UniProtKB/TrEMBL annotation:
SMART domains: Lactamase_B
Keyword Translocase: no
Pfam families (UniProt xref): Lactamase_B
Organism expressing this protein natively: Apodospora peruviana
Name of the protein in its database record: Beta-lactamase-like protein
Length: 349
């Protein structure tokens, strides 16, 4: 890879120039994105009705409601309905959808994690904090985040737990488990054993590369480990909270393979891209500017990793061309800071 350094730097400058052009607005750039058709993303779509939502029925009272971009799990029990997440984009349509599924009232609301794009409609269900008809449940870290947020759209939960919590709701059971900090401080695995459904939000993006910067995870090693924690469960249906339809175990193993490739390619790049000629050139042109030197070097490493990863995954998982470089950058950062893969900045002789 050292021999291709000059082409790497030249390619990086072209890439950055392209990125700068893209910053003028996606509206004029959208023809340049690779098509989603033909990728694995097309396997999981479900149609939306005239009201703007779609429903999957998994049997035994379990449903997924989606607006095409976000997902909610609805579990109908003899003692009331359990709702997991209320994305604001689904909003009032979620109440409408549940009302069309059953006349049994909602009695429990579960936060998958704290983020407002999945929980910003929670207040539509958790209406009376003092005398709630609906009990809200979350991991204790999520509760702490919601206390700090003071967001009327995301009420502080009534019930919290540290490691696991089993919700017995009439004839239904929902197992909640905290696998550790990853995407968020309190993102949990939500498991319906009778229906063999596993939900973990912002973890697996079936048929797609993850959302920007490895799902914008607060702790990348925990997010990576969660792939194995999920696969330790016995499940058939996987819900990731995004992208329309339900997925399965294969979606988890495919994304795990992508992340492992990304990890290996970025580690290779860190160990092989030579910082000396890059640093010399940057410092010559920008005397004493250590950050400039480091920024150009790290982007060169990320680009080598991105290109190696794209060789296998471009056109297979959707949006590698859109978020792939952000994943390479984030993985390079995590490898350096979390995994002690420091390349030329490791322990000196
Ligand atoms: Zn999130």
């Amino acid at each position: 890879m050292k021999s291709s350094l000059s082409s790497t730097v030249a390619g990086l400058l072209i890439f950055l120039a392209g990125a700068a052009t893209a910053c003028t607005g996606f509206a004029g750039q959208h023809d340049h994105f690779l098509p989603v058709n033909g990728t694995l993303a097309m396997e999981n779509q479900i149609p939306l009705n005239d009201a703007g939502y779609g429903v999957s029925h998994f049997g035994h009272g379990a449903y997924m409601v989606t607006d095409g971009a976000y997902q909610t799990l609805v579990l109908v029990s003899t003692a009331g309905v359990v709702v997991v997440d209320a994305p604001p984009t689904t909003g009032h349509k979620l109440q409408w959808a549940i009302g069309n599924l059953t006349s049994i009232p909602v009695r429990w609301f579960v936060y998958s994690h704290s983020h407002s794009d999945h929980a910003g409609g929670a207040y539509l269900f958790a209406d009376n904090q003092a005398h709630p008809k609906v009990k809200t449940i979350a991991h204790e870290n999520t509760a702490a985040q919601l206390v700090a947020a003071r967001d009327p759209h995301r009420p502080v939960p009534h019930i919290t737990f540290k490691d696991r919590y089993t919700l017995k709701a009439g004839n239904q059971t929902l197992d909640l488990f905290f696998p550790g900090i990853g995407h968020d401080l309190g993102n949990i695995i939500i498991y319906a054993p009778k229906q063999r459904i596993l939900m973990m939000v912002d973890q697996i993006y079936a048929g797609w590369v993850p959302f920007w910067n490895l799902a914008a995870s607060v702790y990348v090693p925990g997010w990576i480990d969660a792939h194995d924690r999920i696969l330790a469960y016995d499940f058939d249906v996987y819900l990731g909270g995004h992208m329309g339809g339900p997925a399965n175990r294969t979606a988890v193993t495919v994304q795990r393979e992508y992340v492992r490739d990304l990890y290996a390619n970025c580690a290779d790049a860190l160990n092989n891209v030579d910082i000396v000629p890059i640093g010399t050139e940057v410092l010559t042109n920008n005397p004493y500017n250590i950050w400039a030197q480091f920024a150009v070097y790290l982007d060169a490493v990320a680009e080598v990793c991105y290109n190696a990863t794209s060789a296998k995954w471009l056109g297979k998982l959707a949006a590698q061309d859109i978020f792939g470089f952000s994943h390479a950058r984030t993985m390079v950062s995590s490898l350096r800071l979390d995994y002690d893969v420091l390349g030329p900045n490791g322990v000196q002789p």
